Amino acid sequence: MTTTTTSPLAIEFCGMSFATPLVLLSGCVGFGEEYTRVKGFSNREAGAVCLKGTTLEPRLGNLPHRIYETPDGMLNAIGLQNPGVDKVVNDILPTLDFSETRFIANVSGSTVEEYGEVTRRFDDSPIDAIEINISCPNVKEGGVAFGNDPDMSARVVEACRAATNKPLITKLSPNQTNIAENARRCIEAGTDGFAVINTLMGMAIDIESRSPIIGNNQGGLSGQAIKPVALLKVHQVYQVCRDHGIPIIGQGGITTAEDALEFLIAGASAVGIGTALFYDPLVCGKINAGITDYLQRHELNSVAQLTGTLTLNAPRQTPNRCGC
Q1: What SS3 state is found at 143?
Q2: Whole-Å CA distances, 303 to 11, 65, 141, 199
Q3: What is the DSSP letter of 245?
Q4: 23 in Cβ contact with 264 (< 8 Å)
Q5: pTM across the whole model
């Protein structure tokens, strides 16, 4: 009789089996093939790969500059450059090795109808799941308006839900008043999971020309600089998700195993790796090893046992200077 040993890193996410809790984030790995050219890199070290944002028609994206390094982070304003959904489905997906990992499409659009149509075209494809990008901060139309308005967010999710039975993962914007309320509305509309968070909006200025460095004037800030914000947003969204069994991909500044563990404890079931890949393409192996070591030291059988285990400090009042 043969017994099968399940890796402590393996998780279930929206009905999909991930070999590890790591997810390579959309926009950071092209259409799943870019980093495979790096010696020592393997998609097998990630539980899933999110493909580049895809629209109905091809897009050239924004004018340069599109990327700028900032203290502990990076601004980007690519503008959803992509060859269009038909090219992705017909020419790119057949080249991917689905035995290596799960592949998740990233859907974007400038109208609710476009989101639904792009989702419909991915529905008849081997893609494993669909991420709804309602929160892209570096396109002039759609994008931010959808992600920052709970009503619009719900409408987009409803349109995508009607177009597919594949798992839907909604990518939430941090640039909004009440992210938990937005999450609640998206759950009611039919989302199966969340990616928390997308980039924060930011700017960099060339003091000599007195103009923005980014051609789009503003862009999305990612990297370690946004990690504290991302952790709080994951915790807030988890308060809504836990009673509904809705899992979260926590993301924003994860560069080490310790970072990943913080997001899992805050409420994430999986963790997204993005900006860190730009300066260390082999970071996934290191993070997986660090998580495994932590599980062994704490005698845990599965990384899933960490999700949502945060214990908040008891509130207390500090006396003011008059002793009151």
Answers
A1: coil
A2: 7, 40, 39, 26
A3: T
A4: no
A5: 0.94
Which amino acid appears at position 255 of this protein? T
294-323 pLDDT per residue, tens:
999 999 999 999 999 999 999 877 666 655
ω into 235 cis (within 30 of 0): no
- Tokens representing residue 220 in the block: 């999305």
- How far is the CA of 239 from the CAs of 96, 100, 236, 244, in angstroms? 36, 33, 5, 10
- Count of the separate structural domains present in the chain: 1
CATH of the domain at 27: 3.20.20.70
Amino acid symbol at 226: I
pLDDT average, residue stretch 287-297: 98
In sequence order, the β-bridge partners of residue 48 are: 23, 102
Taking a C-beta distance cutoff of 8 angstroms, is the pair 223, 212 a contact?
no
Instruction: Choose among 234, 174, 221: nearest CA to 72.
Output: 221
Q: Which residues are catalytic?
A: 136
Joined tokens for residue 322: 């008059």
Quote the domain boundaries for residue 52.
11-306
User: Is 4 within the bounds of a domain?
Assistant: no
Residue 140, SS3 per DSSP: coil
Instruction: Return d(Cα 82, Cα 55) in angstroms, integer.
Output: 7
